[in-house]
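Quick illustration, no need to memorize.
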Amino acid sequence: MIRVTAAIIEKNGKYLIAQRKKGQHLEFKWEFPGGKIEKDENAKECLSREIFEEFGLKCKVENFLGSITYSDNKYSIELMAYKVFLDSMDFRLKAHEEVKWVTLQELNLMNLAPADIILIKKIYQLLNTG
């Protein structure tokens, strides 16, 4: 089981999603930013590192929102979501095609990665009320 993190970043009622690059597993799918937890690293440290590596931004990782497990023919993952606040919005895309700010309703219209679809279903009510 691969342990993976997801950053739930909200600004003015919209949430940040990023599109995977061509040639990657699940190319062009949209996802919440994050990544695999490395050895000797906890989930919050992973998110801080991933946000910096993927966007060149520093962030503050806050509370745990929930997790799901997902398996396909290549991977089995545990995806853990945390509320994250960015220090700036000066994105430098290093690992994604593009980023978008979308409402919770618009998330349902996006071509999301399968694990992110399941995660949204689990934490939708919390995001919608919190």
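The beta strands are 2-8, 10-11, 14-20, 30-31, 34-36, 59-71, 76-86, 96-102.
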